[in-house]
User: Fold this.
Amino acid sequence: MKLILEKITKTFPGQKVFRDISVEVNKGQTLIINGPNGSGKTTLIKIISSLLLPTAGKVVFNYNGKDLTGSDILPYIGLVTPDLFVYDELTAFENLNFFAEVSGLVVANFEIKLAQFGLKGRGYDLVGTYSSGMKQRLKYILALMRNPPLLLLDEPMVNLDDQGKSMVEDIIKSHDGITVVTTNEKENLKYVGGREIRLGE
Amino acid sequence: MSAAGKSGLVSKTLAVLLKDLRSELRTRYAICAIIMFAVVTVVAVGFATGGITLEKDLQGILLWLVIYFASMAGIGQSFIKEEENRTSLALRLFAYPPSVYGGKYLFNLMLLFVLEIIVVPLFAMLVGLQVKCYVLFFSVLILGTIGLAGTTTIIAAIISKTSTKGVLFAVLSFPLILPLLIMAILLKRLGGVAGVNFLCSSNVCLRIFTFRLCLE
Amino acid sequence: MVWKIGLLLIFSWVIIGTWVFEPPMSSTFNPEIYRIFYYHVPVALVTFIAYALAMYQGLRYLSTKKLQYDSKSSIAALLGTIFCVLAMVSGSIFARFTWGVFWNWDPRETSIVVLLLIYLAYFSLRSAVSDPVKRANLSAVYSLLGFIAAVFTIFIWPRITPGLHPGAPGDSKIIVMSFNTLIVFLPALAAFIILFLWVYSLSVRVASLQKET
Assistant:
């Protein structure tokens, strides 16, 4: 298992976000993308997850001996980002069951999962009634549902309380695939070792 | 790890359909828009032609126009809602694209049938509808609806990504739907359904195919 | 340069041939009118070729995601639309002198209006999306859908509904091409195709140069 970024360059009309980013990450390692606001952290996460095309360069994810590029990578990632939203008019259970069914998973007992992530007994509430911290927790259940080898966490701590933050730390530590995390404050993630990319310098 | 796989396409498609039905039943957004629009149009047509007995050809044309423009008011919602509530990212991460198209297609088809169950009797009452052969009338109606849903669903997927959704929806789907609409209208005169049948099946297959390309 | 001289020669031959030989249809009320056949039909066929090319380049864009194919696709669609207008105008002139009016909603005439609408909608779609990648994706898919509808509109619809245009069902005046007709028609077809390809390649070059600067 290996994630390779090859000379990734991204320009939006009239501005260059970053250029020639090359990095290799192996199984068990964590890649930290560090930089101030507007330095392109989310853009880079989107490029890794194939949701955005780079202007130049390419992303390769080697898994089980196969080189995956483009949208072939989608089934293997778990993504948590502020841009991710689930259906407000459905309950947490309905949301989880729906995403499990459309991705071809056997529908599991989500009661236990909800309890693990501190949402015990809230499964039958509409997601629209959730607080932003609770929604963030739900996103983690969703992202980890498929046991993804590649975990992409964009601003993982946003909206979370202390207990939630330590939950995320545990997730990152115990994940045995590759983890990519963005942050703008190094202190938040001092517990994770790993490669680091600094953007916006 | 079978999210990209084609296995279980039927159950995945049904999951999308059920999800859409469930959220439609809770918000009732599309169905309200579509039925209100249709009722208003039928009443307007009935009022404008009040007292005049319309020719049979004209009845068929007006009926299809009412159905077409009413569908414009509601069919786009299934995709536009995903875009406006920003849930399309989650859908893209988890779902196999043809199952999304298939589910939304079935949802829109059901929406159109509900619309027709209300509009056709209302139209017959307020405007008048002389049907010579009921078998032919209903087969043209059903096949025409199948084709209409196929085309408008893919156009809805396209326009949900643009900024001027409402206007563009009618502009883009009208020329594409026109051959179908004209066939459906003409068939009342010609008395055969082969043309529509061919058109519907080719439409649906190709649209599923192109939808997959669209998302990748 | 050779191509341009060749094109000039072919067009000269076509223009001379149009008037020198007998008209392509001899058995009708006003056979002279049918001389427009040498221009109207090739232009209509080039319209179709251009739209097919737009779809093909759109497909290439979708499989490679290279924006250059998107620009090629839109250029082909634009040229197709210009040829479509030419076909419409020439057909309308023909209609005026055979059926007495410029426009009478014959199935063939309606079909070309629909064709024009499809591709005008294509350009309104392009102008509605500002992000180039998104625009390329959406318009490539639409060009594919539009072409499917265009095939039906051009080839099937006018043949199954009765109308005035030659070739409609029930039309007894079948055009049988004589040798003299063919030696004008085939060069005319070639000339219009070459003209289209020439303008197309020029426009592609202009577009790529504009992008570089």
